[in-house]
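Suppose you are handed a protein chain with no further information: no name, no annotation, nothing but its sequence. What can you learn? This example shows the usual starting point.
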Amino acid sequence: MDKFSESASSTLAITEGSQLSIWDLRVKENGGCVHRIMGSVGDVLYAVNESSSGYIAAGGGDRTVTIYDPRKWSAVSRWLNCSKYEITGLNFSSVDHNYIYVQGVDYEVLCGRWRENEKAFSFRGDSNWLGFSKCSNRDILAGWCDSGSVFVADVS
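A reasonable first move is to predict its three-dimensional structure. Written in structure tokens, the prediction is:
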């Protein structure tokens, strides 16, 4: 399960196996669940993030990032096999929302333009990433590796 919120948003996205559930705390019907998007059976989603422009990104075991437009509840882009291994972390860029940072379970964090499905750059840790996070208003990333090392990258 993962949630997104870079601002005081009333929405919450939760990954539930191969399903993405979108909740709005302002809605009373269905306990606040406004939409569910089913992925492929067996392809577990591990990460979700929302850009300040409203797009929602989800990724997981199929190594694919899918970007959804919540106004239409449809996928606007799919970045196929952008990671060598399962995707466990996603963050939209604060500088340019056409870019997204993708973390897998291997040594690499990559940044790419999700509309064009192209890799811009990547950086590596000294072992598998256990997790990473980004400042909400700047593109400063910090990640923790299996070795115990912490890496910080200022990409803004």
